[in-house]
TrEMBL record:
It comes from the Bacteria. SMART domains: Glyco_10. Keywords: Carbohydrate metabolism, Glycosidase, Hydrolase, Polysaccharide degradation, Signal, Xylan degradation. InterPro entries: GH, GH10, GH10_dom. Residues 42-347 form the GH10 domain. It catalyses: Endohydrolysis of (1->4)-beta-D-xylosidic linkages in xylans. This is Beta-xylanase. Belongs to the glycosyl hydrolase 10 (cellulase F) family. The keyword rRNA processing does not apply. It comes from Psychromonas marina. The lineage of its organism: Bacteria, Pseudomonadati, Pseudomonadota, Gammaproteobacteria, Alteromonadales. PANTHER family: BETA-XYLANASE, GLYCOSYL HYDROLASE. Its EC number is 3.2.1.8. It holds the Pfam family Glyco_hydro_10.
Length: 742
């Protein structure tokens, strides 16, 4: 645990500003004086800056100024260094306001982060209205950056060089810069800023990029590529304009911080505010969000700035921009501290006194397994709460031998999703079931419409079965397990109490769940979240479930190894898609990794798919069947189109990503083997071939994944379906699953 100090090593600056030269440093054992100290003193002990955005006019308000000097060690000009203010005419710069802020900061030993050299908002009219050629605009930008950064050379610690260059789907935002200069403007901006002040620490800054999402993936991907090219980028800022009503996931934020830290980047929380709906109290939820962010900032040494977008609710931008919202900051309109302040202060106090016990919730995507453990989230009571759970689809029909995929028509007959959470020592779950015919009259219990749940702990395993409309009938389970169906048989809520435990947090269990369907005679389907041969009842072919929570770590060695996907050995090079389908296994594409709280697909006519792969010598031959009501292939960023991506990694080689937009061949990439993709005219079937560097041998496995992306509105991908759960980062060579050659 990184930033946290041991009690005996605590140094507390009791008097004066921690940054002044004549500060008095007192070394003591327990540092009780830490309690109630201003934020900047505490944060300084863990190498964290506490910042605020402001404008020069705010300094006229004595309370503002007093609070700023007392609590904060860094400032960001909220507006006054933006293009329209510092560069109001083509040949005129105006640094008057910016200079006042910098002078103020220097007098008060505060660091300054310049904000923002390149943005698509708050640009002067002369710039917006000009009809610039590429070269002209390049010259303007170069002159702007070099003049502004040059003016402040040696005085500013940091610069936000490029602000908000990506749209919410992870494409390049169509800004005035992008439209004329293309994506190169980002790289150029950093290079020019670095030339003008080689000591300034340069940041990319954006919003909705704190966790793991299409947008933060795009930022990561692009910044990584630029760093590999030697572009001087030193950090990534995430703005964090949040709402009190929406929880944030510290595991996802942690994961994002860690991947940026792996690039040797520093991370800034740059524009924190947590707005509250006027009709709600919200202060406690707000304090929770602030608290989570401060915990992350205190935990990760790479996070070195915690900046709020303003100080007091009196001047916040929120009410003017978000109708019906306000009170977003840590100080109210009268500069009184709010619960958020106390929470942040308490966490910092713990951090400097050695009482900080925090590790972010585990991000399962980090764990190298070829099928991720299912994520069970912690509840605050025994009542199942869908908003706090992760729903997964019933993806594979294990009753159907080699073809485990489900067509939309088959899903009309049976479909479902499930989630498991926990509270203390109870698993608390829910199954949502869609079935056109409910049948429970077969004499053999297992032949009826039912749900089976399988749990394995160490050597013990239990099967719990519930026929639709009835309670669980657990087989040999010593504890208490109950289940209850809604009257229409569409919702099943269950609880399994594991009495040997006080609390399940941090446990990893073997797990499976099955939804059986009989429409009048025999079962025709038994759907599981994973592939397999329907032997769960023998204690085999389990997946894993992990009881996630703060300080919890998933088992380092998987407690169960679910079956891998299979590629059949083809008798000869296939000449058609059907040739592959006839010989190999067919699996569904069921996990929408774009929706991290519900990976199931609501409407299978919207998008549905299956895939099959076989091999012959050193070639993989694959098929994707696709049902989609709307085909979009017009996006400039090809991954935003309807497409299929195939991820292949053989042996120690690097992972290769192949992409075929519907109707088109694989995109050309620097892969040494041959590869091609062919769609039928309707775009419903893809037939592809990929040459491997060596022939596949029976029993050999390759790291693998396959994804079907679906864009319906010409702007946002709505689905990206995979055969396994995950967080949509296979393109980084992560979360690959396994394909075994038969
Ligand atoms: O807080 C700023 C507000 O006063 C301006 O009117 C607005 C103009 O778009 O910009 C606000 O600050 C933005 C920041 O520069 C970049 N991230 C989003 C912030 C809130 O819009």
């Amino acid at each position: 645990m990184k930033k946290v100090l041991l009690p005996t090593l605590v140094t507390v600056a009791l008097f004066g500003c921690a940054n002044t030269q004549d500060e008095k440093v007192v070394v003591q054992e327990t540092a009780p004086e830490s309690a109630g100290m201003p934020l900047k003193y505490l944060a300084n002990q863990v190498n964290l800056g506490i910042g605020a955005a402001l404008e020069t006019r705010h300094l006229q308000d004595p309370q503002f100024k007093e609070t700023l000097i007392r609590e904060f060690s860094q400032i960001t000009p909220e507006n006054e260094m933006k293009f329209m203010y510092v560069h109001p005419e083509k040949d005129r710069f105006d640094f008057s306001k910016g200079d006042q802020l910098v002078d103020f900061a220097m007098e008060n030993n505060m660091e300054v982060k310049g904000h923002a050299l390149v943005w698509h908002i708050q640009n002067p009219k002369w710039l917006e209205d000009g009809n610039w050629s590429k070269q002209e605009l390049k010259d303007i930008l170069e002159n702007h950056i070099k003049t502004v950064v040059g003016h402040y050379k040696g005085k500013l610690a940091y610069w936000d060089v490029v602000n908000e260059a990506f749209d919410d789907n992870g494409g390049f935002r169509e800004t005035l810069w992008y439209k004329t200069l293309g994506e190169e403007y980002i790289e150029l901006a950093f290079r020019w800023a670095h030339e003008a002040d080689p000591d300034a620490i340069l940041f990319y800054n954006d919003y909705s990029t704190e966790g793991m999402s299409s947008k933060s993936n795009a930022v990561y991907r692009h910044i990584k590529a630029l760093i590999e090219k030697g572009v001087p980028i030193h950090g990534v800022g995430t703005q964090l304009h949040l709402t009190a009503e929406n929880p944030i996931s510290d595991s996802a934020i942690a994961r994002n911080i860690e991947r940026l830290a792996d690039l040797d980047l520093s991370v800034h929380f740059t524009e924190i505010d947590v707005r509250i709906r006027n009709s709600e109290d919200g202060l406690d939820n707000q304090a929770k969000r602030y608290g989570k962010l401060m915990k992350l900032a205190a935990f990760y040494p790479e996070v070195d700035l915690f900046t709020t977008w303003g100080i007091s609710d009196k001047y916040s931008w929120i009410p003017g921009w978000f109708d019906g919202y306000g009170r977003a900051l840590m100080f109210d309109e009268n500069y009184q501290t709010k619960p958020a302040y106390k929470t942040v202060q308490g966490i910092l106090t713990d951090a400097v006194t050695g009482n900080f016990s925090y590790e972010p919730v585990t991000d399962l995507s980090k764990v190298q397994r070829y099928v991720q453990a299912f994520n069970a989230k912690e509840l605050t009571s025994t009542k199942f709460d869908a908003s706090k759970a992760v729903f997964y689809p019933f993806a594979f029909n294990q009753l159907n031998g080699k073809n485990q995929a489900l067509t939309p028509e088959q899903r009309n007959s049976i479909d479902g999703k499930w989630a498991v959470s926990y509270y203390k020592n109870k698993l608390i779950g829910q199954v949502i079931r869609k079935d056109n015919v409910t049948y429970i009259d077969n004499a053999q219990a297992h032949e009826n419409d039912n749900i089976e749940l399988f749990i394995r702990i160490g050597e013990q395993f239990w099967q719990f079965r519930s026929l639709v409309g009835q309670d669980f009938a657990p087989l040999g389970f010593p504890g208490k397990a109950t289940g209850e169906w809604s009257a229409d048989g569409s919702v099943f809520n269950f609880t399994v109490e594991l009495s040997e435990y006080d609390d399940l947090v941090g446990e990893t269990f073997g797990f499976n769940i099955a939804l059986a369907d009989n429409d009048g005679t025999n079962r025709t389907a038994q759907l599981y979240p994973l592939t397999g041969s329907n032997t769960g009842w023998q204690g085999e072919e389990f997946g894993e479930i992990f009881m996630n929570g703060q300080n919890a770590v998933v088992a380092s060695i998987p407690v169960s190894t679910p079956p891998a996907f299979r590629a059949a050995k083809l008798s000869s090079a296939p000449t058609s898609a059907q040739d592959v389908l006839d010989q190999s296994y067919e699996y569904s594409l069921s996990y929408n990794q774009l929706n991290q709280s519900d990976m199931s697909v609501a409407d299978h006519q919207d998008i549905s798919g299956s895939w099959a792969v076989g091999y012959h010598e050193n070639w993989l031959y694959g098929v994707v069947n696709r049902v989609d009501d709307t085909t979009v292939t017009s996006m400039a960023q090809t991954y935003q189109n309807d497409n299929v991506e195939v991820f292949v990694q053989q042996g120690e080689k690097a992972m290769t990503q192949f992409r075929s937009v519907v109707g088109k061949d694989f995109e050309k990439i620097g892969y040494t083997g041959q590869y091609n993709a062919q769609w039928n005219d309707e775009g419903t079937q893809l037939f592809f071939a990929i040459e491997l560097s060596a022939a596949l041998k029976n029993g050999e496995s390759i790291a693998w994944n396959i994804a079907l992306a679906d864009n319906d509105d010409g702007t946002t991908r709505k689905h990206q379906l995979y055969p396994v759960p995950g967080s949509n980062i296979s393109y980084l060579g992560e979360e690959l699953t396994k394909l075994i050659a038969e």
